[in-house]
Amino acid sequence: MKVGRLKIAKLMVDELEQSQDSALLAKKLAAYLLDSNRVNELEPLLRDMIYYRQQKGVVEATLTTAHPFNPASKSLILTMIRSNSTNAKKIILNQKMDKSLLGGLNLMIGSEDLVDLTIRTKLNRFKQLTT
After folding, report:
1. pLDDT digit string (tens) for 73-100?
2. Same domain, 74 and 116
3. Among 6, 20, 45, 128, which is 20 to 30 Å from 72 by CA?
4. C-alpha dihedral (89, 61, 82, 122), degrees to nearest 10
5. Whole-angstrom Cα distance, residue 56 to residue 88?
6. Beta partners for 64?
7. In terms of residue numbers, what domain contains 69?
8. Band of the pLDDT at 113, cuts 50, 70, 90?
């Protein structure tokens, strides 16, 4: 019997709360998806998991910058996330660097762009306006 994607997402979120070994949980999920020939459901499954985590007050955001981010600015970003996520009990801020952005920042909460202030985006908009 095939287990529904939403049920898997809920189970995974519950397991994440109980387990400290998220890498092992990810391997188990990957093995299940491979074994049941459902690899194409990974992306929607992850979106469902983000949604259920947000319902439980866990907000995960990704901050992408071209250069290292200083602690004072990080605090400002966390304050902004709290103001946009009224039921946030816990905020997880993943930081990554991408030199192709040239400068500025991109903030995603879950799978949604909240703020895109990258130089690359501004240059692309300018290019669209001038062509």
Report:
1. 888 889 888 887 778 888 989 999 998 8
2. yes
3. 20
4. -170
5. 8
6. 96, 106
7. 57-130
8. low
